[in-house]
Write a structure and sequence with these properties.
By secondary structure, the chain is α/β, with parallel strands linked by helices. It has 11 helices and 12 strands. The chain has a 7-stranded parallel β-sheet, with helices on both faces. The chain has a 3-stranded mixed β-sheet with strand order 7-9-11. A two-stranded parallel ribbon has the order 8-12. Helix 3 packs parallel to helix 4 and helix 5 packs across helix 11. It is globular, with a radius of gyration of 19 Å.
């Protein structure tokens, strides 16, 4: 099986690359000239230099592949120029799907996000059938992913074999950037987490997310969305689990959402707009925090053979990896 994979240098993408490689797939990995390749060490694959915004740069490499796995995305909760995010996430996805269709690529698996689901403030556990619209999307990242997902679903309705997978909040090693979730772990390890807000996440082992990208090719229905999740936790529960693993005290002060919003506003104004650096807190993240992102993976369990596994091992692996690679002091 010849697989063309975008986003392989990132956290989730690198695990997906290893999952495909473990099944004997012949991999072609799209990378930028400036991409760090640390996460791909030991992965038997051909790297293709190119850019999603310039499809002709990799057209020939995609042409004779059976599978396209589109994982790449601009994942940031604060952007100075939102147009670049929409260009990468929406236009890039649309153009890539069109190219795959024109070249006769047999199957496409598109990595969306649980962010496109219809979450509620009361902590209701949502699934793929929970009503949702673009108006429910908070911030440019969620809006761009929602619009990109609609491109994938539209392509499937028009006859293209496109599978949509929606990971919740992956956790595990090799979060090189790190992602916003990885940054929570890093901040905790560096004792920069003095308080918390009443919010919640669904944590999933990144290894299970990667495994399902391979398994879903032969089991998922084109045009359907599949949530790939794990365990639903409040932020306080996650912090307590990290405390149990590390011995670092978990914060005991709960900050009201209004206070978090005010801090994020001033941090975004001072750090982001005046100092032109990425702020530690953003208004978008504070607004998102009012909704508990609790989700059900029953559909993926039923149709794809997805497994919900305890995330303790993945959380511990993330902590060990961040410490081993200098993101936080050794234990």
């Amino acid at each position: 099986m010849d697989v063309f994979l975008t986003g392989a240098t990132g956290f989730v993408g690198s695990h997906i690359a290893r999952a495909f490689a473990s099944q004997g797939a012949r991999l072609r990995l799209l990378v930028r000239p400036t991409s760090r390749l640390d996460n791909l060490a030991g992965v038997p694959a051909e790297t293709v230099i190119g850019d999603l915004l310039n499809p002709d740069s990799f057209r020939a490499a995609l042409g004779d592949c059976e599978v396209l796995a589109h994982v790449a995305a601009d994942y940031r909760l604060w952007v100075r120029e939102p147009k670049a995010m929409y260009a990468a996430n929406v236009d890039g996805t649309r153009n890539l799907l069109a190219m795959a269709r024109d070249l006769g690529v047999a199957k496409v698996v598109y990595t969306s996000s649980v962010a496109t689901m219809g979450f509620r403030e009361d902590g209701t556990i949502v699934d793929e059938n929970t009503p949702v619209s673009l108006d429910d999307m908070i911030g440019h990242y969620k809006r761009s992913k929602y619009l990109a997902e609609q491109e994938a679903i539209s392509a499937a309705r028009n006859g293209q074999h496109v599978i949509v997978l929606n990971p919740t909040t992956p956790i595990g090693p090799n979060d090189i950037k790190p992602t916003p979730t990885g940054q929570i772990v890093v901040d905790f390890l560096n004792r920069k987490f003095p308080a918390y807000v009443d919010t919640g996440l669904n944590l999933v082992d990144v290894g299970e997310v990667a495994r399902m990208h391979v398994e879903a090719l032969n089991r998922a229905r084109p045009g359907e969305r599949y949530i790939l999740g794990g365990e639903n936790f409040s932020l306080k529960q996650i912090l307590d689990k990290m405390s149990a693993i590390t011995g670092i005290p978990s914060p005991t002060v709960e900050v009201p959402h209004a206070v978090a919003m005010a801090f994020a506003f001033f941090d975004e104004m001072f750090t982001g707009r005046l100092r032109r650096k990425e702020p530690r807190a953003t208004v978008e993240a504070a607004r998102m925090g009012k909704k508990k992102m609790f989700a059900s993976s029953a559909k993926a369990e039923r149709e794809l053979g997805f497994r919900i596994v305890p995330v303790y091992s993945a959380l511990r692996a993330a902590i060990d990896w961040f410490r081993a690679h200098g993101y936080a002091p050794a234990s």
